[in-house]
Amino acid sequence: MIINNIEVFVCCPGRNFVTVKVTTSEGVYGVGDATVNGREQAVVALLEEHVIPCLIGRNAHDIEDIWQYLYRGVYWRKGPINMAATAAIDMALWDIKGKVAGLPVYQLLGGKSRKGVGLYAHANGEDIEQTLDNAQKHAAAGFKAIRLQSAVPGLDVTYGVLGDKKDYFEMQGNRPLPPEETWSTQKYFNMIVELFDRARSRLGNEIQLVHDVHSRLTPIESARLGKLLEPYNLMFLEDASMAENQDNYKLIRQHTTTPLAIGETYNTIWDCKDLIQNQLIDYIRVAATHAGGITALRRITDFAAMFNVKLAPHGAPDLSPICFAAHMHLNTWAPNFGVQEFVGFGDQDLPQIFPHNTEIVDGMAYISDAPGLGVEFDEEAAKAFPYKRSYLPISRLEDGTMWNW
Ligand code: CS2
Ligand code: MG
């Protein structure tokens, strides 16, 4: 079962996706997601110029050896571009192995640990009222966990919120230069506790609540926020502070029992290691696309299990449905699965380009038993949506200082 062709496609149905297709001598093929938002063509160049030539002629069944070849075999390890290229190849090889075995990937990982995968939906709003209206709609649709993000009064735009009333899926679709946003921690603090106070009054105590701080706070500010939110019993507070210095979380943890989650920008197990083994977090939010694929996430998940940390993969709209499928297989298998972020499957374009049969019922996702990953990539449909250069925004404090977006 020899790898005899690998192709890379970039399409932009509202936002850019980089898709890899690995084809074997037997004609069986697999697909993988290599999307790094705002840096798409860097991954394409790495794959086409440096990775693909080394893989042609190798045995497609040697998933572990190929992963190690791409990780250990290069002097320049880690990094989002490198690990996304590795991830896409890895996902495609798991897809191929499943198809050849006639089994869905979760069976190859060890089988089902649960009937379905619990999801958390996003409720966003331009004010607290609108956020809670949207949360109530999700609760009525059966979601048991909901992320609440509300615009901060006094700031033009707030991350994770419906900027100019556009659907979340349309954001980031066509920004030829990075838009600039302003941040004020003071203004945010004035809003955030009220949001959760009113959420509990309106939504009751059964629903699980999540909030993404998007790394805007210093560790001591995060510690204070965690403490202030304790009465509202969050499932977790996400990306409270940056953790390039993983010790930041020691400080946060000393002060609050609000559960903590981080990991969507992490690329390897090493980025998570200290946080996990020191039990400084409760959920690890790595994405298969950005942290080296199924092979790498399986390893992180097993390591996390030893320290009571649960898997809660990133599920933003800039991860393609192929990544979502990879997460579904990991989530279905992982004994220490927590929750999966879910923003819907998009309008008709996305399901047409990436057809799949994942079912959503009452806030739970059920993977199909199709062999492999169970998601396709329609090259013809994708052609109608050519690549557009596009960036995430950047963030500045009110005095103009660069801040974390
Ligand atoms: C967010 C993301 O879903 C999340 O948790 O943090 O929407 C994030 O902003 C984007 O994935 C950035 O690429
Ligand atoms: Mg996030």
Automatic annotation (TrEMBL):
Enzyme Commission code(s) on record: 4.2.1.8
GO BP field: amino acid catabolic process; carbohydrate catabolic process
Gene Ontology MF term list: magnesium ion binding; mannonate dehydratase activity
Keyword Lyase: yes
Coiled coil stretches, renumbered: none
Superkingdom of this protein's organism: Bacteria
UniProt keyword list: Lyase
Keyword Coiled coil set for record: no
Domain Mandelate racemase/muconate lactonizing enzyme C-terminal intervals: 128-259
NCBIfam families given in the database record: ManoateDhtManD, PRK15072.1
Xref: PANTHER family: D-GALACTONATE DEHYDRATASE-RELATED, STARVATION-SENSING PROTEIN RSPA
UniProt-recorded name of the protein: D-mannonate dehydratase
Organism: Zhongshania aliphaticivorans
